[in-house]
Amino acid sequence: MTIAHTWGTRPDERLLSYPCDRLLPDPDDSLYRGVTIDASPQTVFRWLCQMRVAPYSYDWIDNGGRESPQTLIPGLEELAVGQDVMEIFQLADFARDQHLTIRIKSNSRAQRLFGDIAGSYCVMANGPRSCRLLVKLVVQHPPGVWGQLMRSLLPWGDLIMMSRQLLNFKHLAERRLTNRPH
């Protein structure tokens, strides 16, 4: 496996069972991402809920140039299966303060482009003020030549976007904890 498949994760974390595994039990590919955040699992989970309105990666690429909110928006933690997440996904499952599991919208332009993708953002406590944010994506590539191209490009493209996203969540959650200036 390359860094594009395992960024920020340890071998034992890649052996865990993730909720997204139930959605695509026989994927073509699995991608893992992880970061340690010095904030409570509850704080990190609240930031994950913000994905209902913004992607928190490179806003100029995947948010129409609009800045992802830098403060928590009240009410976004009120989750329901089927809600939109980052525009191209829907919330498939969740457990408060533990995980958000998303799946690309079926029959969408995004699904035709990237394939069927499900992912779980899991918050694993390291203590009261520290946790690991682990993400697993499972992918069923589109058919044909385009699918072969996605097999090569998606892991690297996702690494660029998701590493930025997770580092943004780390920064925002830790800033809130330590009351650093915005």
Please give a structural write-up.
- The chain has 182 residues and is of the alpha+beta class.
- The protein has a single domain (3-9, 17-177), classed as START domain (Alpha-D-Glucose-1,6-Bisphosphate, Chain A, domain 4, 2-Layer Sandwich), CATH 3.30.530.
- It is built from six helices and six strands; from the N terminus they run H-H-E-H-H-E-E-E-H-E-E-H.
- The chain has helices at 3-6, 11-14, 41-49, 59-62, 109-114, 144-178, and strands at 29-37, 84-85, 89-95, 99-104, 116-127, 130-140.
- Strands 1-6-5-4-3-2 form a six-stranded antiparallel sheet.
- Helix 3 (41-49) packs across helix 6.
- The chain is globular, with a radius of gyration of 16 Å.
- The protein starts with a helix and ends with a helix.
* Widest sheet, order of strands: 1-6-5-4-3-2
Count of domain modules = 1
**Strand count, sense and closure of the main sheet?**
6 strands, antiparallel
Shape: globular
Poorly predicted tracts of residues: 177-182
How many runs of DSSP E, i.e. beta strands?
6
The CATH homologous superfamily is named START domain
List keywords for this structure.
single chain, 182 residues, alpha+beta, Alpha-D-Glucose-1,6-Bisphosphate, Chain A, domain 4, 6-stranded antiparallel β-sheet, 6 strands
